[in-house]
């Protein structure tokens, strides 16, 4: 437990580092490397000095995600924790936009004032250093104390955050943040955030009893109820098509989506569907053909990230060409559309580090190479390597 004197000394030390703009290696050790790096990124983001509240995104109807459904199941437990601990609890999506909150009476007014509410955009490039965004960026638990925050209006806060990880796919689905006043800072705060993340992850497990997960980037794989299935490439294509058409397809439309103009009999497709129904234990409906299990897929996550404008999340999930060997006209057209949308977002971003990391994994990503050449000064040491990538492409 910290004394008031300890906390005041900590605030004074942070103020001194900020005043001298001292971000030396020694300072980074005092702050923690993740906080020091976040400060530097926040400064380069040119966040308006007068910004005292997070930008507020208008709420709109959307298809409920597994995270939304899990929150419906465990919201009472989380609300109880907020009330008993004199905190505000917020759950954010992968782009640091808050999708759910519960607040104690002590923190409610302060949370509303800075838009620490549903729709509040707490991405680092919008409001600077904060625990919610930092936890998503590092994919680890984090604590941001008082004036470690970039935005002055939350200097009276201390925030603890932990990523929410899907128990099956191991993908980060979002983040949970617990916040209170800096005078109530406690060494157990991070553990409390991790406990809340665990509550959400348990709810995710409960609501995913019949769960189908499709990985279609890089090496395709299908998991059903946490067990890997042995499927043919054609069967994986069929599942991917049905995942992209949740309302289902009749036999004729599914045949066209899979085979196009190739001369393959309808009977062949019927046989494929019969085998898939046996493998999935009845989780494949007919008339129309549709998936009855809870469906998740890496390509659906990328699509959702693009819909939300979250380029960092989209590039992180994009681990290779989508079903690179498919001849399905439907899947080829969808892949072309996805790559076009991703390329358009790449040419609009100014995040150099993000693009450098993407090119390191995919040197053939000519769109990212071209964008980096536009963004980097001519004397930057990466230019020579980037030009080589462009020449190879």
UniProtKB/TrEMBL annotation:
<dbReference type="GO" id="GO:0006355">
    <property type="term" value="P:regulation of DNA-templated transcription"/>
</dbReference>
<dbReference type="GO" id="GO:0003677">
    <property type="term" value="F:DNA binding"/>
</dbReference>
<dbReference type="InterPro" id="IPR029016">
    <property type="entry name" value="GAF-like_dom_sf"/>
</dbReference>
<dbReference type="InterPro" id="IPR016032">
    <property type="entry name" value="Sig_transdc_resp-reg_C-effctor"/>
</dbReference>
<protein>
    <recommendedName>
        <fullName>OmpR/PhoB-type domain-containing protein</fullName>
    </recommendedName>
</protein>
């Amino acid at each position: 437990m910290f004394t008031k004197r300890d906390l005041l000394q900590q605030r004074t030390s942070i103020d001194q580092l900020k005043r001298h703009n001292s971000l030396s290696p020694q300072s980074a050790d005092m702050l923690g490397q993740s906080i020091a790096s976040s400060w530097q990124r926040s400064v380069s983001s040119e966040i308006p000095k007068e910004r005292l509240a997070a930008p507020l995104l208008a709420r709109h109807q959307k298809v409920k995600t597994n995270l939304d459904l899990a929150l419906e199941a465990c919201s009472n437990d989380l609300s109880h924790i907020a009330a008993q601990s004199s905190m505000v609890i917020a759950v954010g999506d992968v782009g640091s936009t808050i999708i759910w909150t519960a607040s104690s009476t002590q923190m409610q007014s302060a949370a509303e004032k800075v838009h620490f509410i549903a729709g509040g955009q707490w991405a680092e490039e919008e409001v600077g250093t904060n625990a919610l965004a930092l936890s998503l960026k590092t994919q680890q638990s984090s604590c941001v104390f008082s004036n470690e925050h970039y935005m002055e209006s939350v200097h009276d806060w201390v925030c603890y955050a932990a990523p929410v990880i899907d128990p099956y796919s191991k993908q980060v689905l979002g983040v949970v943040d617990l916040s209170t006043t800096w005078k109530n800072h406690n060494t157990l705060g991070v553990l409390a955030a991790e406990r809340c993340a665990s509550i959400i992850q348990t709810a995710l497990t409960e609501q995913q009893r019949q769960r189908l997960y499709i990985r279609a980037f890089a090496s395709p794989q299908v998991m059903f109820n946490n067990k890997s299935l042995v499927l043919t490439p054609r069967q994986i294509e069929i599942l991917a098509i049905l995942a992209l058409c949740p309302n289902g397809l009749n036999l004729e439309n599914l045949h066209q989506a899979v085979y196009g103009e190739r001369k393959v009999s309808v009977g062949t497709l019927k046989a494929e569907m019969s085998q898939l129904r046996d493998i999935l234990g009845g989780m494949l409906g007919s008339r129309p053909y549709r998936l009855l299990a809870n469906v998740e897929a890496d390509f659906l996550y990328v699509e959702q990230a693009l819909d939300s404008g979250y380029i960092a999340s989209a590039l992180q999930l994009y681990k290779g060409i989508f079903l690179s060997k498919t001849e399905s006209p439907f899947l080829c057209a969808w892949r072309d559309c996805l790559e076009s949308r991703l390329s358009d977002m790449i040419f609009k971003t100014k995040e150099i580090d993000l693009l450098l990391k993407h090119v390191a994994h995919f040197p053939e990503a000519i769109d990212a190479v071209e964008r980096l050449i536009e963004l980097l000064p001519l004397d930057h040491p990466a230019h020579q390597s980037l030009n080589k990538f462009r020449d190879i492409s």
